[in-house]
Amino acid sequence: MGEMFLNDVSFPKMLIFDQTQFEEANFYDCIFDGPVVLTRCGVRRNASFLDCEFRGLAKFDLGDFNDTYVRSRFLDHAIFWGMCLKGHTTFSRSRVEGVLEIVACAVEGSLDLDLAVGPAGQVTMKEVGRQFVERVGGQTYEELVKKPNWNVLDGSARVYFGPMHLDRVELRDCDVSEYRFRNAVGIESLAVYDVTWPRRGVAYRVGDELDLAEPGKKSNARPTPGEVERICRAFRKNFEDKRDRVGAHGWYVAEMEVGRRYAPKLSLTRLARTFYKATAEYGFSAIRPAVILVIAAAAALALLSVDATSMCVVSVESPSVCAGWETTMRVVLLAIFLQGPPPEALLGGLIAEVIWITLRVSGAAMLIAIAVAFRNQVAR
Questions:
Q1: pLDDT tens figures, 218-245
Q2: CA–CA distance, 165 with 45 (Å, rounded to integer)
Q3: Residue 214: CB atoms within 10 Å
Q4: CB-based burial label for 268 (10 Å; 0-12, 13-18, 19+)
Q5: Looking at residue 165, what DSSP letter applies?
């Protein structure tokens, strides 16, 4: 077939296209009361379903579509299975009252969902990738659904959710490296099962963060660092609610890293998070603060042992003479644990008091960091 344009048409019974090739296929203001089945169909240019209503089953399987525009209502069950979506595919302003499944599909272009899901609706994306490595041949649909892994996909599809609510959306067995969640609502309730996330060390990454690092991209096409932090924070809550402490840890580090990397230079946020990472690995390393505490104690011991009464620890009985090594060590150890000098010792002068106060502050901070790290490790 060549080009097909249907406007304001009702289909009371089943509509089937099997192994049909279209130059264009456009449906406007159409109502499908019965099932709609497009099997092994191809659309060379545009496929459009605008302001249509699918009241029964809508099944699109094993087809090859180029640019696809869907702005319709799905009242029953709609499934896209084994499809190759080559251009830009959008469901923007569609509404799902039943079930929408996108399963074992290759999105070689981009997929823009941004649809509304009704109170009883559900959207599932399963085994969606960038391209087919291996694709089914001439099997019937009934045979194929028994072996869903016959479609082998590689890479991550580029998917944009837009400002849609994700509390009734499910992702399964997908590589989500190129998924964009900016402006999405309800990430905390998104159902995620066996997906592949990109990582930097222990930190997860979202595709939105990749856009921050593309200087050539227009500013209106990039999220703000604050928005990416919000996404990471929402996923942290998502994993915490599922009691996945290890996953939540990865999202916490991701949130902190985004704020550190993309904050203005010399800003308080960047300086504070850089210090927090260097000293405690964002609260998950007990070794770093312990080593810093030992170094701080050794430095304080060396400074307070200098033979100058303005810097050293002195004896109560002889204020003009620096105390011995053992007394100075006791002062240092007590300072670390927020205790005052022993009764027989005094701080010789202003410099000694500054060293002592600095050691107490450092000791308190490092002890808290050690306690937090142990708590986080035990909680995992």
A1: 555 678 999 999 999 999 999 999 988 8
A2: 31
A3: 10
A4: exposed
A5: B
Strand 36-39 relative to strand 15-18: parallel, antiparallel, unpaired? parallel
- pTM for this predicted structure: 0.80
What's the CA gap between 158 and 350, in Å, rounded?
63
Tokens coding 295? 């170094």
Which residue(s) pair with 113 in the sheet? none
**Pairing verdict, β 77-81 and 88-90:** unpaired
**Count of other CB atoms within 10 angstroms of residue 154:** 12
Q: Are strands 64-74 and 95-96 parallel, antiparallel or unpaired?
A: parallel
CB 133 within 8 A of CB 83: no
Distance CA 225, CA 273 (A): 15
Q: Which amino acid is at 166?
A: L
CA separation for the pair 211, 180 (Å, rounded): 9
Strands 99-103 vs 84-85: parallel, antiparallel or unpaired? unpaired
| Tokens read off for 195 | 């997906």
Q: Which residue type sits at 162?
A: G
Q: The tokens 């002068």 sit on which residue?
A: 349
Give dist(CA 101, CA 330) in Å, integer: 69
244: its two tokens: 């996945």
Q: Which tokens in the block code for residue 337?
A: 């644990």
Give residue-wise pLDDT tens across range 306-333.
888 788 888 888 888 888 888 899 999 9
Cross-strand partners of 50: 28, 71
151, 136 Cβ separation under 8 angstroms: yes
Q: If we measure between CA atoms, which residue out of 72, 64, 74 comes closest to residue 90? A: 72
Burial of 330 by CB count in 10 Å (0-12 exposed, 13-18 middle, 19+ buried)?
A: middle
State the burial class of residue 312 (Cβ atoms within 10 Å of its Cβ: 0-12, 13-18, 19+): buried
